[in-house]
Amino acid sequence: MTHTPDPTLDTRHRLLEAALLTFAEKGFDGAGIREIAQRAQANSALVQYHFGGKEGLYQETLRFVFDRGACKIRDLSAPPAPEDPQARSKAIAGVRAHIRSFVEDALACHGHAEGGPFGSPALMKAALVLWNREVQDPRPSVHAFLQEAVRPFIEHLVGCIRVLRPDLDEERLLRMDMSIHAQVLYLHNHPELLRLVRGRPFGPEDAESLVEHFTTFSLRGLGVSEQGA
Prior knowledge:
With 229 residues, the protein is mainly α. The protein has two domains: 55 residues, Orthogonal Bundle (Arc Repressor Mutant, subunit A); 154 residues, Orthogonal Bundle (Tetracycline Repressor, domain 2). Helix 8 packs antiparallel against helix 10. The protein is elongated.
C-alpha cells in the first residue's frame, strides 16, 4: 500500500499512519518497529516514547482507525424512556438515525478517490483490512478496547428496540440488534462485492434510499408499523 508521509504532520501522527499500513500488510507479528519508524521518517526510539512499545502502538492504531472511521454514536440522541408519551415515535426516529449514521459512514469511507475520512486511499484500505481482521480474530490485548468501542452502538439500538418491543427478553433484543446491524455492516464491509454485483458503487446520492430501505425492512422485521409514529 503506497502512501507518502506528510512532513507537516507531527511525529506521533506519522507513526500511527505508518503503523496502520504496516500492521495491515504484515499483521502484528510480522510488523517491525524499525520498519514502521522508517516508513514514518522518524526515529524508532519514538515508538517507545509515544506508545510504550509495539503493543501500545498497535492498540493506539486501532483507536486511530475507530475514531476516524466509526459512526458518530455520540451525536445520536439517547433512547427514550418507556414512560415518555412520545416514546414510540422517538424510538422509531432513533432506529432511523442509528441506521443513517452507519450508512453515511459507509458511503464516506467508500467510493471517494481521496480516501474518505483518512484522506488517502491507501490508508482507507489499510484501515478496513486491519479493523475487519481484528474484529474477526481479536488479539487478547485489545478485547477491552473492542468492547468499549462496540458497546455504545449495541446499547443505543437495543434501547430503541426495547421501547418498540417491550415483550422481548435480552437475548431476543440482541438478536434483533444483530439483524439490523448486519444490513449496514454488509454495506460498509463489502463495497467491492456490491460494486461487482450492482455494476456500480453506492454513492452519497444513494444515502436516503438506503436509509429508508434499511429502516423499513428493520421495522417490519420487528413487527412495528410506522403508522402513528
